[in-house]
Every structure is written in structure tokens, then in C-alpha cells.
Amino acid sequence: MNKILILGFGVASTAYISLLDHNKKKVSVLGTPFDLKKISSLNASHIKKDKKSGLVFSNNVKFYNNIEEIIKSKYSLVVVGVNSNGILWASQQLRLLKPSCPILILTKGLFKSKNKIYKLSDFFKQKNKLIALITVSLTAAALLYATSDMPYVGDPNSPVQTHVASRYIEQSGSEVGIPNIVTSVLASYRGFDTLGEVAVVFTAMIAVLLLLLRREEDQEIDREK
């Protein structure tokens, strides 16, 4: 590994940094807002010694308080070592960094929100459900607004009845040359629309056939076993 980025400078990440430093790995540490004083103190001293743990870090370990200092750097691994209160901060940093390398999460799988403890998976599911609910609500509102000024079904004064239908009835025979009006509409006036519908039905049929063939193959394998 060429370069490793650690997000957070808590207990778990400090232990991991010490292990990487012992194996002579190049490590960059981005501290949370709570680590500002601790990292500033380390960078100001000649010896990088963590007062709380007593660990001394070599020059292979670099400490940063601002993501702008490392945003252009490339890493082979990103380690999330924040506590539960730093989950949102870590997710924001990852969105800014957009790493293409593997991400290792050392954080325990719990998150506190509004005096309640959630599993991280449940917390992210709740956020996804909220986003989905908002999206569906906005889509429904847009559809309702778009259909609010539509004419009633069968309204003789609607544009379809006063313009399109009369054109089909009066001129389809001379323009298309097909005596059946429905056929002339489907095959000529709305030919591309019909082609699209046929393609959709054909695709659905192929998908069903593939599923049925796969099921038969699975049944044959089960019989052989």
C-alpha cells in the first residue's frame, strides 16, 4: 500500500495508526473538529507524541485539520475511525474526497440520534425511506397538478374530439389508403408509438421465456442431484 488515510483521531484510529506506523506505512490523519487542538499540538512539537496514549509517531504519519490540504492526494486505503458522533462528519468527508480505493470502517455499528440508539444499518435505512417518501410525494403532486386541467372522459369539446378524431375519420382513407380507421391510426398516424409498444411486449415475452427456461434447468439439476 502506498498511502493510507485515517479519518478521525480517536482511540480506535490511534491504535490503528500506531500499528501502521510500526510497519513503516505512510499515513495521513484527518482529524475531526474535536481533534483540532490535539493535532495542532502534535504538528507544533518536534516529537509527535500523543499525550493521552503516550504513543510517539514517526515522520511517516502526517496530521491534518483541513480536508483541503489532502483533497488532491491519492490513497490506496481509507480508514474511518471516528466514534458514533462522527459518522455524519465522516460521510461528508468521503463525499468530498470521492475515494476510488477500499474503505475500512472501524466504527462500532451504533448511532445516537434524538436520545435513541440505532444500528447504523437501521439509521441509513430510515434516511433512505425519508428520501423515497419525499420523492414519491413530489412526483404525485406533479402528476396531480398536470392532470388537473385535463378534459373529462368523453367530453365532445376536448381537443381530441374536435381536431384529431375528425381528421382520422374524414381523411384517413385518402391519406393512408386503408379502409379500416383503427388500422390506419395504429399503422400509420401512430406507427412509431405502435412500434414502441410492440418492442416492450416483445421484450417482456423474451424475459418471461428466459425465466421459464432457467426454472426448467434448475429443476433438471435438482433431479440429477
What does this structure look like?
- This protein is α/β, with parallel strands linked by helices and 225 residues long.
- It folds into 2 domains: 4-121, Rossmann fold (3-Layer(aba) Sandwich); 159-224.
- It is built from 7 helices and 9 strands, in the order βαβαββββαβββαααα.
**CATH level 3 topology of the largest domain:** Rossmann fold
CATH superfamily of the largest domain: NAD(P)-binding Rossmann-like Domain
The biggest beta sheet is recorded as: 5 strands, parallel
Based on the structure given, which CATH architecture of the largest domain is correct?
3-Layer(aba) Sandwich
> What sequence of helices (H) and strands (E) makes up the elements?
EHEHEEEEHEEEHHHH
Low-confidence stretches: none
Query: What is the radius of gyration computed over CA atoms, rounded to a whole number of angstroms?
Result: 32 Å
How many separate structural domains?
2
Mean pLDDT level: 82
What overall form do the CA principal axes indicate?
Answer: elongated
Roughly what fraction of the amino acids lie in strands?
5-15%
Identify the CATH class of the largest domain: Alpha Beta
Number of separate strands: 9
Give the CA-CA distance, first to last residue.
45 Å
Helix content: 40-55%
Q: Which structural class is indicated by helix and strand composition?
A: alpha/beta
In spatial order, strands of the major sheet run 5-2-1-6-7
H/I helix tally: 7
Task: Briefly characterize the structure.
This protein is of the alpha/beta class. It has 7 helices and 9 strands, in the order βαβαββββαβββαααα. The chain has 2 domains: 118 residues, NAD(P)-binding Rossmann-like Domain (Rossmann fold), CATH 3.40.50.720; 66 residues.
